[in-house]
Design a protein that fits this description.
four-stranded antiparallel beta sheet, globular, 13 strands, Aspartate Aminotransferase, domain 1
Length: about 300
């Protein structure tokens, strides 16, 4: 059985330790005020997804992210499926550099390759990085570069998608984070047509469900919602920083999650957990705590726990 890796979420473990049922989960970087679901047609559930629906989603995604000509785009059932499949599209003898600390599914996916910091055949960059928000540039690219932009929709001006038409560059996009619909399981790979083509073969026909096609098309065709959401997330991130000012120093993050340095991360997690608020701590640091943003109606609860 594969070992479960450390992630946000996991409220079942929190309940086992601290009890309670009405938990507020701040351990992920998912937008707590999600995009409103569209009205579904019966065929979204009963029929295999058709070509026209897939084309509509792909066109909406290309417009929203300003995908350059010459780059291919593939919609997938969640970005995790792409992360897991990507290494198999490359020669097993290739070396890979995954600057740490970062999202640990990348290292797990590339476990069959030689991994080491420094010059390598392949470089995987999380941009902005999870958990510290580090930003990368095209100057940081390797001969083959994978750029995970799961959290970049809060700062589209920093996106590196313009490089997706270059050979051996793949940009990854998550739908669940910014639009707050992680359960929909929708993600995208954009870039080098050769690599995207191999990914398409591995995912097989109909990788994206009818409800995900309809929802993704609607959301990616709604720039007004995206603009308003960016403004709200930026305001809420500053508000969270203000609440945390007496408890820890801001290390970094994005407008979807904030990383703070506290005296004792486990003690701080315990303090919040006694108010049924779940936070994220890390096995490689005893001082880092990551907090996502509360939903609109839950700020009083967070303020009370931190008072």
């Amino acid at each position: 059985m594969a070992r479960q890796r450390d992630h946000g979420g996991g409220l079942d473990a929190a309940r086992d330790t601290w009890g309670g049922t009405d938990w507020l989960d701040l351990s992920t970087g998912i937008n707590p005020n999600p995009y409103p679901l569209p009205a579904f047609a019966p065929s979204d559930w009963t029929a295999l997804p058709d070509r026209d629906a897939t084309t509509a989603l792909n066109q909406a995604a290309r417009r929203f992210w300003q995908v350059p000509e010459g780059a291919d785009l593939l919609a997938a059932p969640g970005l995790s499926s792409v992360i897991a499949a990507l290494p198999s599209t490359f020669d097993a003898e290739m070396s890979v550099d995954i600057p740490a600390p970062t999202y640990n599914e990348h290292a797990a996916a590339w476990a069959g390759h030689k991994t080491a910091p420094g010059p390598a055949d392949v470089r995987v960059l999380v941009h902005p990085n999870n958990p510290d928000g580090r930003i990368w540039q095209e100057a940081d690219f390797a001969p083959i570069t994978i750029v995970d932009e799961s959290f970049c929709d809060v700062m589209p001006e920093a996106s590196l998608v313009r490089a997706a038409s270059r050979p051996n560059v793949v940009i990854l996009k998550s739908f669940g984070k910014f639009w707050g619909l992680a359960g929909l399981r929708l993600g995208f790979a954009i870039g080098d047509p050769t690599t995207i083509g191999r990914l398409r073969d591995r995912l097989g026909p109909w990788p994206v469900s009818g409800p995900a096609l309809r929802t993704g098309t609607a959301a990616l065709s709604d720039p007004d919602w995206a603009d308003a959401t960016r403004h709200r997330l930026a305001r809420d991130a500053r508000r969270l920083d203000g609440l945390m000012a007496r408890h820890g120093a801001l290390v970094g993050g994005t407008d979807l999650f904030r990383l703070y340095e506290v005296d004792d991360s486990r003690a701080f997690q315990d303090r919040l957990a006694r108010s049924a608020i779940w936070s994220r701590i890390f096995p490689y640091s005893d001082r880092w705590v990551r907090l996502g943003l509360p939903p609109s109606g839950s700020w009083d609860r967070v303020e009370g726990a931190l008072a």
